[in-house]
Design a protein that fits this description.
The complex is a heterodimer of chains A (84) and B (271).
Chain A: H1 3-15, H2 17-25, H3 27-31, H4 38-46, H5 49-55, H6 59-68, H7 73-79
Helix pairs in contact in A: 1-2, 1-6
Chain B: E1 3-9, H1 14-17, H2 24-43, E2 48-54, E3 68-71, E4 75-78, E5 89-92, H3 95-106, E6 113-115, H4 122-131, E7 139-144, H5 154-168, E8 175-180, H6 197-208, H7 212-217, H8 220-231, H9 234-243, E9 248-257, E10 262-270
Parallel strand pairs in B: 1-8, 2-7, 2-8, 3-6
Antiparallel strand pairs in B: 1-10, 3-7, 4-5, 9-10
Helix pairs in contact in B: 5-9
Classes of the chains: A mainly alpha (84), B alpha/beta (271).
Chain lengths: 84, 271
């Protein structure tokens, strides 16, 4: 579990236009710059909202990150359905 | 000249990013009043806007999270969000006023950090879009950690705001002070969309009645439980109440807008 690294990755993509560009060019290569577990790498690559949320990614990192991937409010809510 | 304008305003990104998702009556009432507050701000002819604003992972991460940070840059770029539907702009800063404020705070028992390079996200940029639409009036941001615990205590925010007010009253410039954030909301959480209307109404009543005892008695736990993770941002409103202590507060608008997932408030202060 390396939540710190996972959140740092999302922080960089969300806030920094140059890093976001590099991420978009090759997400898998970009994600390798962070010390993630296999499960975290997979969740980040798949933008698996439910798993990222359950891993503890802060909601104000996660929602903007999913907005960059054009996830609608409805689909975001659906992904988190029945979670605390 | 002292403080010539003060207001507190919510900054839900849906206000611009998905405006039309909200019931039209709510959106029109809130956003028209937001723009009218901008006209009042312009009418007060401020030289500088001091923005009591919050961190949203735009500048700081868990490697360094200040409780308070004063921006001392010559300019600020924003918004960082591509999806906010607000055009990108460079907002002028006032490095000299920021430096003076910073020195005064450090000499007076407050220890904020400072930064000569900050980005603006919707927390600061959205209120400026409505209140300073030309992005012409220079801004001094004072960033609060209302994002990730531990956070500065509400009564400490009030005291910090009081000090900022005393300092600004002595400056030769005309100052507008804005506070941004809140009210109750659970942004991006499983409870996204929940709004605690009774909490918001009680908080607004405390502000309008200038009930400083109640405003400074809020605890971190109570805010989190009743107003959600986003509710922590009322710390900037509590600080502003300290900055303009004794001023009358007028409730300009309150709309609990579910599609914006926020109890949206606007409060103007007058001497």
């Amino acid at each position: 579990m390396s939540l710190y690294q996972l959140q740092k990755l999302i922080y960089h993509v969300n806030r920094d236009a140059a890093q976001r560009e590099r991420y978009r060019e090759d997400p898998a290569a970009f994600i390798k710059n962070y010390e993630l577990t296999d499960a975290e790498t997979r969740a980040a690559l798949d933008v698996d909202v439910r798993t990222l949320y359950r891993m503890g990614v802060h909601s104000l990192l996660l929602r903007p990150f999913t907005l960059l991937h054009k996830l609608s409010n409805e689909d975001y809510a659906k992904a988190l359905r029945d979670l605390e | 000249m002292p403080i010539v304008f003060a207001c507190a305003a919510s900054h839900a990104p849906g206000m611009t990013a998905w405006t039309e998702a909200a019931p039209k009556k709510q959106a029109d009432n809130f956003l028209e009043n937001y723009r009218k507050l901008g006209l009042r701000l312009a009418g007060s002819k401020p030289d500088v806007i001091v923005a009591l604003t919050v961190e949203h992972w735009a500048n700081f991460f868990l490697n360094h999270m200040p409780a308070f940070c004063i921006g001392r840059a010559d300019h600020y770029d924003g918004p960082i969000e591509e999806w906010l539907r607000i055009p990108k702009a460079r907002v002028p800063g006032d490095a000299m006023l920021a430096a003076q404020l910073l020195e005064a705070t450090l000499e007076s028992g407050f220890d904020p950090t400072f930064s000569d390079e900050l980005l603006f996200d919707h927390a600061t940029f959205l209120p400026l879009h409505f209140l300073n639409p030309e992005m012409a009036v220079p801004v001094v941001p004072v960033i609060f950690n209302a994002l990730t615990p531990p956070m500065p205590a509400p009564n400490r925010c009030f005291a910090f705001g009081q000090f900022i007010g005393k300092f600004l009253q002595k400056t030769p410039q005309r100052i507008a002070v804005i506070a941004t954030g809140g009210l109750s909301h659970w942004p991006g959480e499983a409870k996204h969309g929940k709004i605690n209307i009774p909490f918001d109404q009680q908080f607004l009543e405390n502000l309008v009645k200038c009930d400083y005892a109640k405003l400074t008695a809020y605890s971190h736990e109570e805010i989190y439980r009743e107003a959600g993770s986003g509710g922590h941002e009322i710390r900037t409103w509590i600080a502003l109440a300290g900055t303009v202590e004794g001023w009358k507060a007028e409730l300009v608008a309150y709309e609990p807008v579910v599609p914006w997932a926020t109890g949206c408030g606007l409060v103007a202060f007058e001497q």
